[in-house]
Design a protein that fits this description.
Layout lengths: L13 H5 L22 H8 L4 E6 L6 H14 L4 E5 H4 L11 H20 L3 E5 L5 H10 L4 E7 L2 H7 L4 H6 L21 E4 L5 H15 L22
Parallel strand pairs: 1-3, 1-4, 2-3, 4-5
Helix pairs in contact: 3-9, 5-6
Amino acid sequence: MKIASTTQENPLDPLDQQEGARKSPSPKAGNVFTVEHRVNAADRARMNGHLGGILWFTGLSGSGKSTLAVELERVLFARGYQVFLLDGDNLRRGLNADLGFSPEERSENIRRVGEVAALFAEAGMIVVSAFISPYSADRDRVRAAHASRFHEVHIHAPLEVCEARDVKGLYRKARAGEIPEFTGISAPYEPPRNPELVVPTAEWPLSRCIAELVRYVDEHFAQPAAGRPRGPAAVPFAAAGI
């Protein structure tokens, strides 16, 4: 499997696309008014040397999402990018600690994460979001709300490979019936239909996966910085496997 890039060329300047990009739902409460910023996306991009945006990693448990996200954050930061990782397990210890794994709670989990990721992106940062996010409708909803900033990345590995890895021992517990509604076993996973990128972790070593992700970021996010060079041309990758 080759890495897939399906991003379409757009004649508009990417900074113009990001202005006013958020499509927020109507608030339940009344008397809520939007406060306009005096620092816009173009200002932030010139200062940072790159656009803000969301790299949304989706894939089965054990596909390598967290491993890649942690290493990509390190490499991008060393190259001069303003970058932050949002990881599913971490957010379930705080913001989403009140949510379980029913279909409704999974959807709410992704809705909240999408809004947090969008705030980071609007602040000019590159957000690496690593979540199973099993339902296409939930991912499409985040894309629709933040279209110009959203980049879906399918971290792909077959179920049998993920189950063989079973780093956290979750598949064993799911097979034993100890974990209900476990994605890929007793709950569905809906693969992306047309992601911007596919990273086949069962076929590629960690170094190649990271190199392809860095290439994608350089191509789609980098902008001329305000008098600052873009970090080192190459940063050594960690030796750990996926």
